[in-house]
């Protein structure tokens, strides 16, 4: 299915009764989720709520019950490679291979586009060059990954996902470990890609302020269940956060500073 | 700055290493052909090589025989064995994602040794060219399978050392069984014993014929999947998210690497550490991508073993040092260096 055909289907991802057990322990239970084509849904929730497991299940990487449909098609129907051409995953803790250049690393994103024993053609090199350019890494193509800063490395992982040319981008904690400027930069780049390419984005995030500013809809996961779902105004409410995170927060929304979640406990200095 | 320029520079790094590798191989072959108790002379060797085996004028029949029936097959077998062990090491390192994986340390070589011993001691004596490699291949697979299974199940799985610890335990056990079988069959003892210490001393064209089909098949397979080995470098989960059938690739590569190991062991006995020394040295030259590491390991592995073999039959001539002694002499310190580097990284 081509991207322009998909645009006709309003729902990019439809998840119904999705449950995942790991070692007989339920990690994710009966999740229902709809993601509109071109939308950005953020999965939030306390540590251990099952966010990463949910993302991996959506990517088809974990055995699960229930159904996951991608532009109307059950993901089980998609072949391994076809699935990887549709869904790109940026994991929370990517494994960084030793002694690889940025370009060699981003080329891995072309794997689902290549025949099993084929090697990359000009079309693949072009896709990689363009992905690196768009993530401001063109200058770093021949640099070794281990010479990059944390922010550059995160962008290299996203460049790999972009080179995959999938229309659903799964970002698991894309801002972890980055300073505030790099967090904003990564999320702004994702937003640009989303609007320019019509990508659909699902991310997990801990920073509720950033989540609230970038995503359109939110699914609050607690103990493996979706306990709240909807827009920022419907989900990111002080009492909801207090109940599921066990933290006292305030939500401000004024004309000058914009929207933010602020912690209210702790000593005020 | 990117695109063609980047690709261009990457190619040139690999090209430089390839040119160097070919040059070293040519030198190694010449040295292997030249060095020996009977002086033949560089000019004669070159002329003989160029005339593809026809004795050039001025060369005695004996000299031609030495080149054709002793030195050439020995150089070829050493090259095949070196390429096999180095490529298998690189391939095991890729699919187990473990920088210390090596056919010798993994138990693959010991398994192949046991398999070959069973074939020599108990197999039909008529079809030894067939039973020895086949039995060595099965043994190599059993060795790797045991080491991998043990490393994952009992020793906590993920750490780099656990696979090697399991491999060493498996290798010791299989070697013990092998020694026991040898003692039971003392009439074949000498035959097996000389072979176990890494013997290229009795190499002839028979050995070339014995090793060549498996080596070609195994190396061609590893060569074909070298790009996919890069994908495994990002770990199973991410490799699967990129559409790779990781388990299937791992199985194919382990079978190919074990086949190459078995062929090497069947003609040359147990030679350790080549699979460690060569791939890591190649990585220092061209980085971590298996597109370059795998082919260059074959190239440099071949040269390395040809030169080591030449050294082994020269140092204490007319006697020979087992090749495995020399590779261990270089390889054991190398192993410690890799281990230390890996510790620091972790």
Short descriptors:
heterodimer, A: 269 residues, alpha/beta, Rossmann fold, six-stranded mixed beta sheet, four-stranded antiparallel beta sheet, 10 helices, 33% helix, globular, disordered N terminus, B: 346 residues, mainly alpha, ABC transporter involved in vitamin B12 uptake, BtuC, 0% strand
Q: How are the SSEs ordered, and which strands pair?
A:
The complex is a heterodimer of chains A (269) and B (346).
Chain A: H1 3-6, E1 11-22, E2 25-36, E3 40-44, H2 51-58, E4 65-70, E5 73-74, H3 80-86, E6 87-90, H4 102-107, H5 122-134, H6 150-163, E7 168-172, H7 180-197, E8 200-204, H8 208-214, E9 217-222, E10 225-230, H9 232-235, H10 238-245, E11 249-254, E12 258-263
Parallel strand pairs in A: 3-8, 3-9, 6-7, 7-8
Antiparallel strand pairs in A: 1-2, 1-4, 4-5, 9-10, 11-12
Chain B: H1 3-34, H2 42-50, H3 61-95, H4 108-122, H5 128-153, H6 160-184, H7 189-196, H8 205-224, H9 226-232, H10 236-241, H11 246-268, H12 274-286, H13 290-314, H14 323-345
Helix pairs in contact in B: 1-3, 1-13, 3-8, 3-11, 3-12, 3-13, 4-5, 4-6, 4-7, 4-11, 5-6, 5-11, 8-11, 9-13, 12-13, 12-14
Residues in helices of chain A, as a percent range: 25-40%
Main β sheet profile of chain A: 6 strands, mixed
Give the assembly state of these chains: heterodimer
Indicate how many domains the architecture of chain A comprises: 1
Which whole number gives the mean pLDDT of chain A?
A: 91
Q: Radius of gyration of chain B, Cα only, in angstroms?
A: 20 Å
With strands numbered from the N-terminus, the spatial order across the biggest sheet of chain A is 6-7-8-3-9-10
Can you tell me the overall shape of chain B? globular
Number of helices of chain B: 14
- Cα shape of chain A: globular
**Termini gap of chain A:** 57 Å
């Amino acid at each position: 299915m081509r991207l322009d055909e998909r645009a006709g289907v309003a729902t990019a991802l439809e998840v119904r009764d999705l449950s995942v057990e790991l070692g007989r322990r339920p990690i994710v239970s009966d999740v229902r989720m709809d993601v509109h084509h071109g939308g950005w849904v953020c999965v939030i929730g306390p540590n251990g709520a099952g966010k990463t497991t949910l993302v991996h299940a959506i990517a088809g990487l974990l055995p699960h019950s229930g159904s996951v449909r991608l532009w109307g098609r059950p993901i089980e129907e998609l072949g391994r490679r076809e699935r990887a051409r549709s869904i790109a995953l940026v994991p929370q803790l990517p494994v960084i291979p030793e002694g690889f250049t940025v370009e060699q690393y981003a080329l891995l994103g072309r794997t689902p586009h290549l025949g099993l024993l084929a090697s990359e053609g000009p079309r693949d090199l072009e896709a990689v060059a363009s992905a690196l350019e768009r993530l401001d890494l063109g200058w770093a193509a021949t640099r070794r990954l281990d010479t990059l800063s944390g922010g550059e490395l995160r962008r290299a992982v996203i460049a790999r996902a972009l080179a995959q040319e999938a229309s659903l981008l799964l970002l698991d904690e894309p801002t972890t470990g980055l300073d505030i400027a790099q967090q904003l930069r990564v999320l702004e780049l994702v937003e640009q890609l989303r609007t320019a390419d019509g990508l659909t984005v699902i991310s997990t995030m801990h920073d509720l302020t950033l989540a609230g500013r970038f995503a359109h809809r939110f699914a609050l996961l607690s103990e493996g269940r979706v306990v709240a779902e909807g827009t920022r105004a419907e989900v990111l409410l002080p009492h909801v956060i207090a109940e599921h995170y066990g933290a006292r927060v305030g939500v401000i929304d004024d004309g000058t500073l914009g929207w933010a979640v602020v912690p209210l406990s702790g000593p005020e200095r | 700055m990117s695109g063609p320029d980047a690709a261009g520079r990457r190619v040139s790094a690999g090209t430089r290493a390839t040119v160097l590798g070919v040059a070293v191989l040519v030198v190694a072959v010449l040295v292997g052909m030249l060095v020996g108790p009977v002086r033949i002379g560089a000019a004669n060797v070159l002329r003989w090589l160029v005339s593809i085996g026809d004795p050039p004028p001025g060369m005695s029949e004996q000299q031609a025989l030495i080149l054709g029936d002793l030195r050439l097959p020995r150089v070829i077998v050493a090259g095949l064995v070196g390429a096999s062990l180095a490529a298998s090491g690189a391939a095991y390192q890729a699919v187990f994602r473990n920088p210390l994986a090596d056919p010798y340390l993994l138990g693959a070589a010991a398994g192949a040794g046991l398999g070959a011993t069973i074939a020599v001691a108990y197999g039909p004596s008529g079809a030894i060219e067939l039973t020895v490699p086949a039995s060595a291949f099965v043994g190599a697979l059993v060795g790797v399978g045991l080491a991998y299974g043990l490393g994952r199940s009992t020793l906590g799985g993920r750490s780099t050392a656990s696979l090697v610890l399991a491999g060493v335990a498996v290798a010791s056990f299989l070697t013990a069984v092998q020694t026991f079988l040898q003692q039971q069959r003392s009439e074949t003892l000498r035959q097996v014993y000389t072979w176990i210490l890494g013997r290229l001393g009795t190499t002839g064209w028979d050995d070339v014929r014995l090793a060549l089909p498996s080596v070609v098949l195994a190396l061609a397979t590893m060569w074909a999947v070298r790009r996919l080995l890069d994908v495994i470098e990002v770990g199973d989960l991410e490799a699967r998210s990129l559409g790779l059938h990781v388990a299937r690739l791992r199985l194919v590569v382990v079978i190919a690497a074990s086949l190459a190991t078995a062929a090497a062991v069947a003609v040359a006995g147990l030679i350790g550490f080549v699979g460690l020394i060569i791939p890591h040295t190649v990585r220092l030259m061209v980085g971590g991508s298996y597109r370059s590491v795998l082919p260059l390991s074959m190239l440099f592995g071949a040269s390395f073993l040809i030169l080591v073999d030449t050294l082994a039959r020269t140092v204490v001539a007319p006697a020979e040092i087992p090749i495995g002694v020399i590779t261990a002499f270089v390889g054991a310190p190398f192993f410690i260096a890799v281990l230390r580097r890996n510790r620091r990284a972790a």
